[in-house]
Amino acid sequence: MTTTVLPLSQGNDALPRPFRLLSLKAAQGSMGLARRVSSQALLKGERELVIQHQGNEYHLRLTRNDKLILTK
C-alpha cells in the first residue's frame, strides 16, 4: 500500500490536518506486473479444476454461460 500526501490550499475550506490518499496498488517496480494465464491453459479442455491452497481445496468451474466460478 502506498500513501500520498496531497497539498491543499490554505483558503477558507482548508482541512485542519493533511488529507492522505491511500492506494492499494503496488508502487511501480516493487512487484512488477501480475502473471497472466488464460483459462483455456488452466482448464485444458475440462470444465473444472481443483486448486490446493494451504490445505484447502478450491474448485474453479466453467459454467454453461462461459463464466468462471471459484468455490471452496
Structural class call reads mainly beta
CATH C-level class: Mainly Beta
Order of helices and strands: EEHEEE
**Major sheet attributes:** 3 strands, antiparallel
- Superfamily at the CATH H level? Complement Module, domain 1
% residues in beta strands: 35-45%
At CATH level 2, the architecture is: Ribbon
Termini separation (Å)? Answer: 28 Å
What does this structure look like?
This protein has 72 residues and is mainly β. The protein has a single domain, classed as Complement Module, domain 1 (Ribbon), CATH 2.10.70.10. 7% of the residues lie in helices and 38% in strands. It has one helix and five strands, in the order ββαβββ.
SSE diagram, text form:
Layout: E1 2-6, E2 19-23, H1 39-43, E3 48-53, E4 56-62, E5 68-71
Antiparallel strand pairs: 1-2, 3-4, 4-5
Keywords:
single chain, 72 residues, mainly beta, Complement Module, domain 1, 3-stranded antiparallel sheet, 1 helix, 7% helix
Quick rundown:
This protein has 72 residues and is mainly beta.
